[in-house]
Design brief:
heterodimer; A: 109 residues; mainly beta; 6-stranded mixed sheet; 5-stranded antiparallel sheet; B: 116 residues; 7-stranded mixed sheet; 4-stranded antiparallel sheet; 0% helix
């Protein structure tokens, strides 16, 4: 099992709909979880961090963490074409930050 | 500026030459990371610094790669005797701390290395 797994996509979502991005991780000891957005040809930029079980909202973005099931998700409400990018999930484990391969999201105008 | 800076932004070098890539982290950030990203691929972890020491060098691909950090600030990644497979974007990131709160990483714009 890969340490951090994401569906590579592409995930196509109509403009205005909710985009749901999922990530699973292998180490139950992980404590810190991050979502990054990466536009083509650009470096990753931090969207959100989450440390506790439950939901964390920031504008149109909601991160959800379920440690018992070892998954973390990112919801994007009212999706815009500018949200089209690759979304990277990252998990802190044993003093390392492990990145998933990313999910390509395509918002359909 | 307040962000992570990297130089050069682009570097073209001939196979066999040495290159040095520089990273200037956000002021006050104690942790610094180097990653490599090939076209269309995910992030490949190379090395991490806490202060000036590098507790984790496990990602360095070969002994041609080395890195140092001085004064708890600027870091340089050196690749000796470059090979074509070293061509990639080299990304640097810094964070306030490591692990729990403060572990959020902020990335620089990257250095695109092309080995001909």
């Amino acid at each position: 099992q890969k340490e951090v797994e994401q569906n590579s996509g592409p995930l196509s979502v109509p403009e205005g709909a909710i985009a749901s991005l999922n990530c699973t991780y292998s180490d139950r000891g992980s404590q810190s979880f991050f979502w990054y957005r990466q536009y083509s040809g650009k470096s990753p930029e931090l969207i959100m961090s989450i440390y506790s079980n439950g939901d964390k909202e920031d504008g149109r973005f909601t991160a959800q963490l379920n440690k018992a099931s070892q998954y973390v998700s990112l919801l994007i409400r009212d999706s815009q074409p500018s949200d089209s990018a690759t979304y990277l999930c990252a998990v802190d484990r044993d003093d390392k930050i492990i990145f998933g391969k990313g999910t390509r999201l395509h918002i359909l105008p | 500026g307040a962000g992570v800076s990297q130089s050069p932004s682009n570097k073209v070098t001939e196979k066999g030459k040495d290159v040095e890539l520089r990273c200037d982290p956000i002021s006050g950030h104690t942790a610094l990371y180097w990653y490599r990203q090939s076209l269309g691929q995910g992030l490949e972890f190379l090395i991490y610094f806490q202060g000036n020491s590098a507790p984790d060098k496990s990602g360095l691909p070969s002994d041609r790669f080395s890195a140092e950090r001085t004064g708890g600030s600027v870091s340089t990644l050196t690749i000796q005797r470059t090979q074509q497979e070293d061509s990639a974007v080299y990304l640097c990131a810094s964070s306030l701390a490591r692990g729990w709160v403060g572990g959020e990483q902020y990335f620089g714009p990257g250095t695109r290395l092309t080995v001909t």
